[in-house]
Design goal:
By secondary structure, the chain is α/β, with parallel strands linked by helices. Helix content is about 30%, strand content about 25%. The structure holds uridine-diphosphate-2(N-acetylglucosaminyl) butyric acid (EPU). Uridine-diphosphate-2(N-acetylglucosaminyl) butyric acid binds next to helix 1, helix 5, helix 6 and helix 12.
Length: about 425
């Protein structure tokens, strides 16, 4: 086991390359099952969630080899079992995407549900509703979801809540279904559009992704292809927030500025300088930070996955800011850690009131989930003294070479070995 040790107080400067998007990769890699052929996937981030998905694919018989760094070839021609066992499913939430892709190709799927949960109840009722409306029989027994169908038929599906996961699963199950599927109140996140583009590159006919009505015209078969995954919106946002917090001047390369608009708008309101180029963005902060209010919303609203990082920044701003979390029930667990560093944040249900305190002080803290861990890194970068962050396995699920990337920007971030804790059980649900 390792921890990050950060000596805070250094400004950031230089250039950082943003990796491929985690939440696109964990939806697109399970979709390769539908190809029944060879896919070459580019811009794949080296993070533990991707390793987990590749393990699942390999366990079902896919042939996988890295052609070079961040480029992986996946051959799903011959798969021997449409199953995801618990030992593999428990490692990550996105394992449930194999329900849609296996059902789409084989008309049957058996996927163990991931255990643990980090920020409130994480139901899959909308996934199941969608698959059932396509004609599948879905049963949940002994922690295993079993889905089967004699044939899948397109239909109109209205999602009761805007759900990224349900939109992904329905897309995966419907591309090879007979007839037309309409997903209404669909999620509009950039990774949904990326998945639709990947499916279309494999020969599917998906239209309207990025709007709240997606139409899927079923096709008879799909084929392998070469595809490059979009840059990670949240990794980029995290480096933007880190630069704004620590001060300095950083260029982020390999980004899609359009995907960052919701974050750019808030940072600009706070007084951070942002200049957009075609596929890069310059972030500069020298002066004081203004307080702002933030309400998380499905895309194109402010992303919940940037909420903890922004809480650090708002702790450094002048005045009082209010954060309203409207996606997850319990995404303020990190606040207790941040308070240990001197933050003054009052949480009442889904609302946090953040008093700007101007500075933070180093303390031993832990990552309570992936984005909470990113927030602790930012806090460590600005804090006076040396901060140690434990449970960094969470951070490694979604941030590629994060310590090295911050080192390249001039930060003093070190990875240090720690003795494993007795009885420590890290929940694994992102
Ligand atoms: N919901 C339901 N029923 C469902 C599905 C969702 O009620 O069947 C509710 C959830 O309880 C939640 C809301 O709908 O209140 C949104 O959930 P969604 O399904 O959109 O979330 P998800 O697919 O489980 C993905 C990301 C999360 C991100 C959310 C929201 C992946 C692998 N995960 O989760 O990312 O927070 O969308 O944008 O794509 C992260 O990267 O740190 C992370 C947690």
């Amino acid at each position: 086991m390792e921890k990050f040790v950060i000596s805070g107080g250094r400004k950031l400067s230089g250039v950082v390359n943003i990796s491929g998007a985690k939440n696109a990769a964990v939806a697109i890699l399970p979709a390769t099952v539908l190809a029944g052929g060879v896919c070459v996937m580019e811009n794949i981030p080296e993070i533990s969630d991707v390793v987990s998905i590749l393990d699942i694919l390999s366990n079902m018989g896919a042939k996988i080899r890295y052609l070079r760094q961040s480029v992986v070839e996946i051959d799903t021609t011959h798969l021997h079992s449409p199953q995801v066992p618990y030992e593999l499913a428990r490692k990550m939430r996105a394992s449930c995407y194999f329900l849609g892709s296996l059902l789409g190709r084989y008309h049957r799927a058996q996927v163990a549900m991931p255990g643990g949960c980090n920020f409130g109840v994480r139901p899959i009722d909308q996934h199941i509703k969608g698959l059932e409306m396509l004609g599948a029989n879905v049963r949940l027994e002994h922690g295993i979801v079993e889905a089967s169908a004699t044939g899948l038929k397109g239909t109109s599906i209205y999602l009761d809540v805007v759900s990224v996961g349900a939109t992904v699963n329905i897309l995966l199950a419907s591309v090879l279904a007979e007839g037309t599927t309409v997903i209404e109140n669909a999620a509009k996140e950039p990774h949904i559009v990326d998945l639709a583009n990947f499916l279309n590159t494999m020969g599917a006919d998906v239209r309207g992704a990025g709007t709240d009505v997606i139409k899927v015209y079923g096709v008879k078969s799909l084929h392998g292809c070469t595809y490059s995954i979009i840059p990670d919106q949240i990794e980029a946002g995290t480096f933007m927030a880190a630069t704004a917090a620590a001060g300095g001047r950083v260029t982020l390369k390999n980004v899609i500025p359009k995907h960052l608009e919701c974050i750019t708008a808030k940072l600009t309101e706070m007084g951070v300088g942002i200049t957009e180029y075609d596929d890069s963005i310059l972030v500069e902060r020298n002066g004081p930070l203004n307080h702002v209010n933030i309400k998380t919303m499905p895309h194109p609203g402010f992303p919940t996955d940037m909420q903890p990082q922004m809480a650090v920044l708002l702790s450094l701003a002048e005045g009082t800011s209010i954060i309203t979390e409207s996606v997850w029930d319990n995404r303020f667990r990190y606040v207790e850690e941040l308070k240990r560093m001197g933050a003054q944040i009052q949480v009442d249900g889904k609302i946090a009131v953040v008093e700007g305190v101007g500075k933070l002080l180093a303390a031993p803290v832990k990552a309570t989930d992936l984005r909470a861990g990113a927030a602790m890194i930012i806090a460590g970068l600005v804090a006076h003294g040396t901060t140690a962050i434990e449970d960094i396995v969470y951070i490694e699920r979604g941030y590629e070479f994060v310590d090295q990337k911050f080192q390249m920007l001039g930060a003093d971030v070190r990875r240090v070995a720690v003795e494993p804790k007795q009885g420590s059980e890290l929940a694994n649900a992102v």
